[in-house]
Amino acid sequence: MSENSNKVAIVTGASRGIGAAIAERLARNGMTVVINYAGSVGPAEELAALIEKAGGKALTAQADVSDPAAVARMFDAVEAAFGGIDVLVNNAGIMKLATIADGDDTLVDSEIAINLKGSLNTMREAARRLRDGGRIINLSSSVVGLYQPTYGVYAATKAAIEAVTHVLSKELRGRNITVNAVAPGPTATALFLDGKPQAVIDQLAKLAPLERLGQPEDIASAVAFLAGPDGSWINGQILRSNGGIV
Asked: Catalytic pick from 37, 147, 151, 154?
């Protein structure tokens, strides 16, 4: 805990689901956590209160990651509040599904704007501002490898994130900053479960050899490993946290 006690982490899209689990875990590990959210402040404030009640340190920061000016303002505010930033977790993302033939411009543009451009916006700021010894952890997806129908645009954005992860890890040479990605498989979040019949959920749970869905805490554990002292020699890697599904 003491090794993380002066560390400051920004977690994007952190008000619910996997992002909330990551924020909670990093706070439990002793980091000051900035809970980024795009729209609704309520869940973000509730999570911050929960973390504070458990003895951690957290504050909320509104910013649409697809807006580079908003991202820069968020980094400015965090630096002003805490004197620096050590960890960026790029969790914010959307998933809209359609075949390549049926995917309209709105679907394509929105997924690229948030999943790819949004992560590039925050990585650009982090590359310029992170304190030496920092960590950048991107969220990819195990759809890169599964390549199921209707996931084409989403998989394309995540494949791009993996490519940028490798490149940025090399560009930050000499600053002791690691850049990695975690690629979850099917994970039991409201976003994932909503609208799916139980039979489909059961089928997806059986796909991995470990025969269950991932939990948000499983993904948070992988992120915490990469963000903490035990992950210091892992760099430019994609950690497929998916129970062996691919």
From this structure: 154
Contact between residue 212 and residue 201 where contact means Cβ atoms under 8 Å apart: no
**Bridge partners of residue 239, in order along the sequence:** 182
Q: How far is CA 81 from the centre of its chain?
A: 22
Q: What is the pLDDT of residue 166?
A: 98
Tell me if 12 sits within 8 A of 92, measured CB to CB: yes
CATH topology of domain 2-185+216-239: Rossmann fold (3.40.50)
Q: What are the DSSP E strand ranges found in 120-212?
A: 135-139, 178-182
Rounded Cα gap, residues 182 and 239, in angstroms: 5
Strand order in the sheet with 238-239: 57-62, 32-37, 8-11, 87-90, 135-139, 178-182, 238-239
> Quick one: tokens of 240?
């497929």
pTM, to two decimals = 0.97
Q: Residue ranges per domain, the chain? A: 2-185+216-239
154 is catalytic: yes
What pLDDT does 1 receive? 44
Quote the CA–CA distance of 209 and 233 in Å, as a whole number. 28
Question: What averages of pLDDT result for each successive group of 10 residues across the chain (246 residues)?
Answer: 80 97 98 96 98 97 98 98 97 96 98 98 98 98 96 98 98 98 95 89 94 97 98 98 96
